[in-house]
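Any chance you'd type out a single protein's sequence alongside its tokenized fold?
>
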Amino acid sequence: MPKLLLLDIDGTLLDSHKKLPASAKEALQQARLNGHDLAIATGRGPFMITSILEELKIDTYITFNGQYISHNNKVVHKQAIEAKMLNEILAYAEQRNHPIVFMNEEKMVSSIDFHPDIEESIQTLKIPHPETEKDFHLNHEVYQALVFCEKEEEQQYHDAFKEVDFVRWHRVSCDISPKGGTKASGIKKLIRATGHSIEDTIAFGDGLNDLDMMDVAGYSVAMANGHEETKKRASYVTEHVDNDGLAKAFKHLKLI
């Protein structure tokens, strides 16, 4: 039975140097030849994954943790965060000297000119510090935002803004998404477009934003380099991404 393989990017497809291992590329190509379908499921935005989509010839993806979904290069779902809510979060964050970054499908922009926390976290994605446009959220749809604060400063945001979700992805940064907007909800929306059943989905991930995807997919694989909680939830834990973990999982599951 053909499977829909849902692939996280950072720490799953890309290794610790943000490179696609040759073994992973080969495994994906072979799985496709064997009749399986490939889709990306990432917290990144579409503009951040164009090169990997092109390299792997993938045209189906869940981005922004479920807020912007495309199948065969056609948008099948998008959900923006309300501008009024973003305005309130921005004002709250500014009082605490926490910068905000706004993202749509084309780019990310920062609420301030430069901040070391933005630089530190954005650099891990191997992309440059965003340009500044403070009122971007008033003139564009924003599907995901980032607030830059340390872990002990995070809870106040959960308490103050119940209508959105905050999910930490870096030492100094949290994703801000519409409530309940997750990779799991994204999978449910995507399979309506692809025609797969949920039982035919296999999720591959490593981070906290992959937890609900692990729970909802028919089968789930965590990378050995993943978060402890993610590994606990997964059906199977494969080897480290730097040690051909993805290709080894494909072999274990007899996808190749």
User: Anything to note?
Assistant: The chain has ten helices and 14 strands.
